[in-house]
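Task card 7
Instruction: Convert sequence to structure tokens.
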Amino acid sequence: MGGVSKEREISLRTGTAISGAMERKGYKVLRLDVKDENFIKTLLTTKVDAAFLALHGRYGEDGTIQGLLEWFKIPYTGSSVKASAICFDKVATKVFLSHAGMVTPAYRVFNQGEDLKSFVANFDLHFPVIVKPNSEGSTIGISRVFEKGELEGALNEALQYDKVILVEQYIQGREVTVGVLEGQALPVIEVRPKGGFYDFASKYTKGATEYLVPAPLDVALTQKLQRLGEKAFQSLECQGAVRADFMINSNNEPYFLEVNTIPGMTETSLLPKAAQALGISFEDLCETILKGAALKS
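Output:
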């Protein structure tokens, strides 16, 4: 938990919630902040039966910590090094799942070092578009751009967080998320930000966003979204619990956005909300994820 990414505070909240749930279940828990200079020493000198990963963002969701635990032969929750690395790279995920037949919004990629003004001048997607760092979470550095004159500023903002920037066609419609637990889709959640755009403030400001569980969708669309969530999980070879995000346009057509392999796990986060709709308590959800801990290589 914790770490050094932009999502450190969210990670600490997730780790605190999970460790509390595990203790209530009777497990002996050691809380480890990977920012601690003694982290590696503690990991090597303590008998660890399994590592429950609550490390969001860089070094946690990108395969880094997974690789370390594989090297030390410590079973861990969630996806493998490979699956984590692919899913944390938004462009790689889109390419991968497009080949698997899933529909994603049209996009362009800007790499640091390219001619920014030339990229803007030759930009050919219709506005509005979404500009976001390729490898960040929690909607960090994300902007919604309505006209070409705003694009350069949005790219410069995103470049503060990553060297690769994804510029994606904005899909006007409803935003939903599908939690997948051990390959099985949970109830769909609709995300309704009161400000109209689900950015960092909307995500983490109390009362700024309404979450509808289960989402008020017809049965056919609900089932389609759940199948797509499961397909993303299987195609990317994910394990444990993930969350797949989608936009639904005015024709009720879903567009895949991204997969989060270590979704927020506070008691008010989206994955626990979806599990709760099935009668799965937060403690039972955490225990189910823990029981899936394993070495993947």
